[in-house]
Amino acid sequence: MRTLLLKLGATVLTLGTTLASAVYVTAHLKNPSAPLQPAVLASQPGGPVGGLTITPGVRQGDVQPVTSTYAS
Amino acid sequence: MRPRPAVEAHHFEALGTSCSLFGLGVSQTQLLKGEFWVRELGTRITRFSDRSELAALNRAEGGWVDVSAEVEELLRESLRAYEFSAGLVNVAVLPSMLAIGYTRPLAEGTTAATLEDAIPAPPLSDVLTVRSRRARLERGCGVDLGGIAKGWMADRLAVQLGPDALANIGGDLSAIGPGPRGDGWPVGMGGATVMLQDQGAATSSARRRKWGELHHLIDPRTGLPSRSGLEEVSVVAATGCDAEIVAKTALLLGPGLATAYCAAHAQAWWFSS
User: What is the mean pLDDT of residues B30-34?
Assistant: First the structure.
């Protein structure tokens, strides 16, 4: 009788945890304020194609470049 | 406050492309020595000369070949690039390069393409073995150091010219020190100017070295020129060689995966389709 109660308790606990997790996940599909990984300082318009994306490790300048990556 | 020294610049053509060296507090003689180093190493790593170390490795038919310290380091860097790019940057694409007609310097024109000979590249780590001053390539394989060499040379040159210098070898850049105004070396990339300080940058493009429907950026998975949906990718990374690897990998991955790859490995990036 005691074994049966333990099994029943464990089953109820498992089902309850699963149900609670499912409810929580569906209620928290995404967190819009979650930080991007890695942090992105700036992304010019254009989406995945056409925009320059800069992380905090790079600074954008307002001076004439001395050279460029377009050579080959 | 002491005025900052003027920027010395030197431009030249080598390795079939344009190169530029810049330095603060360096002499023209030092910049000329840099050019000489590029040309001298270029003669050892070109696949277009039978006398180069690379040509000797490619025709060794599976035998061990003596290599210089620089070539040994370049081959090790190629193996690192292969791992870093999950196999997408694979220098063992020489058979495909020859199949698409890139058999000689592009200034001399291409030859007829035999695309049926273009085959997926073998896993580099399976076919290339590098030991101290020796290397071995499996029979039937061939390597073309291409962009890896440019990025690697830019990194070495910037260090040689340092502590405040910028090297541009065919669009693969390496910048060391605070630059002319103290806020980095201004470099054009993706239609903007980025200030590089102890960083590298590179553009991988299918729009250059292109003839007809063919271009030189081989996808090692197919052995054919890439058709990923991206034609140009520019990247800022920790070094010039890393920038070259990340840019090429992102281009081969295509627009669906390139952003995630660059977010993990680059400091700035720009795509064009």
Answer: 97
Is some CB atom of chain B closer than 8 A to the CB atom of A70?
yes
Q: Is residue A64 part of a domain?
A: no
Q: Do B272 and A58 touch (CB under 8 A)?
A: no
In a domain, A68, yes or no: no
Residue A63 in contact with partner chain B when CB distance is under 8 A: yes
> B199–A37: do the CB atoms touch at under 8 Å?
no
Range of the domain at A11: 2-54
Euclidean distance between CA atoms A15 and A11, whole angstroms: 6
Whole-number percent of chain B with pLDDT over 90? 82
Pairing of strands B210-211, B64-66: unpaired
Q: Does A39 touch chain B (CB under 8 A)?
A: no
- B195:A60 CB<8 A: yes
Of the candidates B257, B215, B209, B250, the one whose C-alpha atom is nearest the C-alpha of residue B233 is B250
**pLDDT score, position B2:** 61
CA closest to A51 among chain B residues: B270
Q: Which residues of B touch A70 (CB under 8 A)?
A: 171, 188, 203, 205, 208
Which chain B residue has the Cα nearest residue A71? Answer: B171
Confidence of residue A46 (pLDDT cuts 50, 70, 90): very low
Q: Which candidate from A50, A55, A69 shows the least CB-CB separation from B187? A: A69
| DSSP one-letter string for B185-214 | EEEEETTEEEEESSEEEEEEESSSSEETTE
The total domain count for chain A is 1
Q: Does domain B7-272 have CATH number 3.10.520.10?
A: yes
Length of chain B, in residues = 273
Distance from CA of B143 to the nearest CA of A (A): 19
Residue A38 lies in a domain: yes
Cα gap B56→B67, rounded to integer Å: 9
Please give the backbone phi and psi of residue A15, each rounded to the nearest 5 degrees, phi first: -65, -40
Is residue A67 included in any domain, yes or no?
no
Q: Which residues of A touch B196 (CB under 8 A)?
A: 58
Band of residue B216 on the pLDDT scale cut at 50, 70, 90: confident
